[in-house]
Automatic annotation (TrEMBL):
InterPro entries named in the record: SAM-dependent_MTases_sf (IPR029063)
Organism: Nocardioides panaciterrulae
Keyword Mitochondrion attributed: no
Record flagged with keyword Nucleus: no
Transmembrane segments: none
Name of a matching Pfam family: Methyltransf_23
Protein name (database record): SAM-dependent methyltransferase
Region (Disordered): 1-36
Biased composition regions of type Polar residues, renumbered to the chain: 9-25
GO MF annotations in UniProt: methyltransferase activity
Keywords on record: Methyltransferase, Transferase
UniProt superkingdom: Bacteria
One GO term (biological process): methylation
């Protein structure tokens, strides 16, 4: 599976019992990064170019990436002129060569308010790239992130199209798209990155996601459903086939709603 993925909870079958996402991701992380670095990975072909496009010019900006993976995307943004970059990831599977200005912290995005390295700091851009599904209390997590935004700051958040999981489950269970899309039951599956690790996912809907943003005092400035470029379609028809079936990801640029309790750090 080449598309970057997010989930609510994960179970390591090697560990032989339920664990939180951090434990499963300490096993999964190297496999995920290997898959992501393939020349035909959807992260390379679709997701990162679209995320990069929405971030725009990062010259002189401070960045915080929550669930940053190995920190590679932040390293690239520093190369593009960002002033500083902090990455938080549960796995601790970080780049061995880190550029100046990059700070990588092994930590839990559910504990933003009690992370000493983040205390009192603000950021121009806060990223949740395929990691928001790990928030145990999504509204609270977004409120904590929102409080760390500078005055003109925004949050860039991406999630897998929930329709993708509904299509997969409908095929597996012999049910319909609607039954699975609106199902409230969580489900478990093994990732293509490492068959030994099973991920348990909470279902979600597009309206549910939008209501979470609203409840956290954020508004959607832009929403994008990125597609393969013409050239990538020709070069990687198997990826277009995948996209035709599963759609890919949703990307949201979120800004604090003025007038609601901002909680900005100044
Ligand atoms: C699908 S990967 C995405 C990585 C990266 N953001 C990207 O776009 O390539 C999800 C990441 O979330 C991290 N993660 C999972 N649960 C987490 C948690 N509770 N706190 C922080 N990071 C977490 C994983 O370790 C993994 O690196």
């Amino acid at each position: 599976m080449a598309v970057a993925d997010d989930s609510a909870k994960a179970t390591s079958s090697r560990a032989g019992g339920p664990a939180d996402s951090s434990q499963a991701w300490s096993e999964l992380a190297p496999d995920y990064e290997r898959a992501r670095s393939r020349e035909d990975s959807l992260d390379r072909l679709v997701e990162w170019p679209a995320q990069r496009d929405l971030l725009g010019d990062v010259t002189g900006l401070s960045l915080l990436d929550l669930g940053c993976g190995n920190g590679g995307k932040l390293a690239e943004l520093l190369g593009a002129g960002a002033a500083s970059a902090v990455g938080v990831d549960a796995s601790g599977n970080f780049l061995s060569a880190q550029p100046t200005g990059l700070e990588l912290i092994q930590g839990d995005l559910n504990e933003l308010d009690s992370m000493p390295s983040l205390a009192g700091r603000t950021f121009d851009r806060i990223l949740f790239l395929q990691s928001f599904g790990y928030a145990k209390d999504p509204v609270q997590t977004l409120q904590s992130a929102r409080a760390m935004l500078t005055e003109d700051g925004f949050i860039l958040l991406t999630r897998t199209q929930p329709i993708r999981y509904a299509v997969e489950r409908a095929e597996q269970n012999g049910t319909s798209l609607g039954e699975e899309y609106f199902s409230k039951s969580s489900y478990t599956y093994r990732t293509g990155w490492n068959e030994q690790v099973a991920l348990t996912k909470r279902t979600y809907t597009i309206s549910g996601l939008m209501n979470v943003f609203s409840a956290a005092g954020l508004w959607i400035e832009t929403a994008v459903e990125p597609e393969l470029s013409e050239e990538a379609r020709r070069r990687y028809p198997h990826k277009q086939e995948w996209m035709n079936k599963y759609l890919g990801i949703l990307i949201f640029k979120l800004r604090p709603r003025r007038g609601s309790d901002s909680g900005h750090r100044r």
